[in-house]
Amino acid sequence: MIQLKNLDKSVSQGNGRLFILRQITLDIAAGEFVSIMGPSGAGKSTLLAVLGMLDGDWTGEYRFLDHAVHEMKPKQRIALNKQHIGFVFQQYHLLDDLTVAENLDVPLSYRDIKKSERQALVADTLDRFGIVAKKDLFPRQLSGGQQQLVAVARAVIHKPSLILADEPTGNLHSSQGKEIMELFTELNRGGTTIVQVTHSETNAGYGKRVIQLRDGWVVK
Q1: Shortest CA distance to 88 belongs to which of 203, 210, 211?
Q2: 67-68: strand order across its sheet
Q3: How far is Cα 28 from Cα 21, in angstroms, rounded to an integer?
Q4: To pair with 219 at 20 to 30 A between CA atoms, which of 120, 121, 129, 191?
Q5: What residues contact residue 16 under an 8 Å CB cut-off, 6+ apart?
Q6: Can you give the residue range of the structural domain that contains 152?
Q7: Judging by beta carbons within 10 Å of its beta carbon (0-12, 13-18, 19+), is residue 70 exposed, middle or buried?
Q8: What is the per-residue pLDDT across 21-49, written as a single tens digit (0 to 9) for each?
Q9: Which residue has the higher pLDDT, 66 or 141?
């Protein structure tokens, strides 16, 4: 599903460049559950943003489902992202002017789904995550944990082929975090590819492979 070859990511620093990712060569097969680990500043979230096509400022090769992402224009990358990827952001990235239900509908709106079917999917997802009572609230009216639940629900509602999750349980109680990881396991068993960034050895244990990053390099 994912093939990276000699991928570099750097930013200007003084008269030179600061490398955030260095010579990343990596394959992730369809149906894998992969955890990315490493110390703060290792480049984990940056790598996830590259995989999710949210960051296009890098060099090297990236192939996703046989699409040459490194040759695509920004609009093409965005379209590919919307079609295939669900992203759980560390800072939620919910739309402030939309209610919880409307936030959940956003990824469905990119697809050819009838409004009645979209409403049914939103209702089912609200129920599945135990947030029916929050459906008419705005993100600012929710706690951090509640926003995290909505963010996860939004990422999975359109049944993406790839879920990218950046510290998906970081703001949840341990019981809620366990439920999210068990949901990811269930989705993975159904064929969804999952790549998560985590500091938690427990959460990493739900995956089948761990990729260790250090100073922008893959070290394991």
Answers
A1: 203
A2: 16-28, 2-13, 59-64, 67-68
A3: 17
A4: 191
A5: none
A6: 2-218
A7: middle
A8: 999 999 999 999 999 999 999 999 999 99
A9: 141
Q: How many domains would you assign to the chain?
A: 1
| Predicted structure pTM score | 0.91
Residue 103 and residue 138: Cα distance in Å, rounded?
Answer: 9
- 């029916």: which residue's tokens? 132
Burial per residue of 183-198, b for 16 or more beta-carbon CB atoms within 10 angstroms, e otherwise: bbeebbeeebbbbbbb
- pLDDT of 187 above 90: yes
Under a CB-based contact definition with an 8 Å cutoff, are residues 36 and 47 in contact?
Answer: yes
Burial of 31 (0-12, 13-18, 19+ CB in 10 A): middle
Q: Which of 93, 95, 90, 120 is nearest to 108 (CA)?
A: 120
